[in-house]
Sequence to fold (613 residues):
Amino acid sequence: MPLDRREFLKRAGLTAGALSLSTLLGRTAHAAEGLDRYFLHVYFEGGWDMLLGLDPRDPAAFPDADVPQTQIQPGYDRLPARFRRTPERFGGIELGPCVGELPRVLEHVAIVRGINMGTLTHEVGRRHFITGRTPSGLTARGDAVPTLAAAQIGARTQVPHLSHLVESYNVSQPAFAAALPVAAVGHLQYILQQSLGVPTGVPANVKGALGAYWAQRTGCEPGAGPSASRLADIYRENRARARDVVESTLYRQFQFESEDTAAVRAHYGITAATLETPLGRAALAAQALKTGLSRVVSVALASGLDTHDGGWANDQSERLDAGFTALARLIDDLANSEAPSGGRMLDKTTIVAFSEFGRTPRLNERGGRDHHLGNVALLAGAGIRGGIAVGQSSDVGMGPLPVDLATGLPADGGVTLSPEAVLTTALAGGGYDASALRSVPIGALLQG
Amino acid sequence: MTVEQLARSIPVVTDGLRWVEDFGDGPTDMLAVLAPTLGAPDYIRVTEENLEPTLIVAKFMADASHRICVQWVARDEALPAAERSLVTHGAAWQSQDPADVQANVRALLLRMFSRYVAPDDAAAVAPLAELFRTAAATAAPDRAAQDGWLAVCIALMTDPEFILY
Fold:
C-alpha cells in the first residue's frame, strides 16, 4: 500500500522544522571512505527531569520535610499511579520511575550524572550539547557533533546525515555532512518517492532529454551570477542525489503500513496513525541506519518537557517515559541487527541521548520544576562500556560534583563534567577524531 | 530564496500556477505543507530561515516543476497568442523553427531568471534550444512542441539560477 497521503498531509506542517545552518562556502570535497561507523544523536526537548529518570533519589532519604535543607523533592507521590513508585536498582544503576523500557537494555547503556550546563536558557543548553562548545550568546559555535561524525564517516550513503526535529550546524565540514532536516516522518517518505507516487505526466522521452541536458551541464555558466556560486554547486549536487534517491526503492522501507515493514511495526508498536510519536521517530531513525539511507541520524524522541507548572506530574512523566521506551527499543533493535560489514549494528553505532539541562530538584509553588544548571546524559554503543553510571550530583540541590575521569567517581580536585566531556567520550569510543572539541574523554566509560 | 519568496515567485513566472495536489479532501498547496522541512521558520522552535539548497529543496523543485510545467504547457497551448506566457514568439505554438525556439528561450530566460540575452547571442540559448530539439525529436508525432517546451520548462525551474540570487 502506498504512503497514506491524507495522513502525511494531515501531520505534515504541524511539526516544527529542524534547522541546518551550513554556510557551505568553499567546501565540496567528498571524503573518501571513512570510518565504518554510525552515529545517533537523541534529543529530549525541553529539559528533562533527572529525578524521574536518570538521577533519582529515594524519597525515604529525601522526605518533603527535609526539603529546606536538601532542596531535593523527588515528588514521586504526585505522579500518575503507574509511575508512583520508588527508584529501582538495576545492576549497579538506580533509575527513576519514568524510564520506560530502559532497564531492559541497561547492559548497553552508560549514564553520565553531574554535568554542569552553565546555563538556564534552552537554546544555549541545546546548542552546547549539539556542538560541544559553549554558544556565543544564543548563537551556536562550531559544527554539530553529528556533522563532525558524518564528515569522518564519509559520503557513503544517499543521505549521509538525517535530522528529524534537531538543529544542526555545519560551518567547516564538507557539504555532504550537513544535516538533511525533515520536520515529519512523512516528509522523509516524500523525499524518497517521486511525487508521492503520483504520476507526473512527464513522458519518458522528456526525462531522457533532461538527463542528457543535466549530464552536460555540471558546472556553472560563465558570468551567470547565481549559477556560478558555491551554493549552486551544492544545489546541483543535491539535485543529482534527489534523482538517485527516487530511483531507488528505499521508500518502501519507510512505508510503515506496508508488508515490507511488518517487523518494524511489530518491534516499535506503531501504525500509520502513530508515526509522529516517539516510537514512530525511533522506527524512522532505526530504518534510516539499518537500510543504509543514512549513517548519522539526529532525532527528537521526547518533546514538551519544559514543565514549569502543574502539568509537570502528568506531562513530564508520560513524555519522559515514552521517550525512554522509544530509545530502549531503538537500542534493542540495533543490538539485534547485523551491520552490513559484519558484527552488531550497536557495536558500530555511537549513541548520545541528551536534553538541554535538567529540572530543579525542588518543586516550585505551581507544582512544576524550573530550569536547573545540572544535567545528565546517556551514552551507548561503539566503544562505550555499558551497565555503568559515572559522575554524581550532590545530595544538596543536586549540583554537579567533580569527578576523577579515570574512575568516574567523585573526587576532590577532580573535573566537573561538561557536554564537551560527554561528546568527546562518545566520539573517542567510536574512534572519531574529537580534537575539535578540545576536551578529554571520561576514561571510565571507554572500553578496553 | 526563502520559502515565502519561492511561493510568491512561482505563480508570477508561470502566470498563476502552483503545485497543488488533491488527495480527495480538497486542494493542498504542497509548498505550504513542506515549508518546515524546506527550511521555513515556525517562530516557535525555529526562528531563522534555513536557506541551504538541501536535497529536499532540490527534490521539491523537481516534483513541483513536473507538476507545474505539465499544466503550464497544456494551458498555454490552448490560449490565444496574446495571452500566452510560455511560448510567446513564433507564428504558431507548435512551431519548431530554430529561430522561433531561440526567441522563446530568450524570453523565458528573461522571465524566469531575469537574464537578458541579446538576440545575436546564440551561444547563450544553445543548450536549452538543443534540449527542446532533443525532446521534440523523440516525442510522439503530435506532441513534439509540447514535449520540447515541457523539457525546457522543467530545466529552467530546476536550475540553480531560478532559486538562488
About this structure: Chain B touches chain A through 57 residues (CB under 8 Å). The first strand of chain B starts at residue 20 and ends at 22. DSSP finds seven helices and two strands in chain B. The mean pLDDT of chain B is 90.
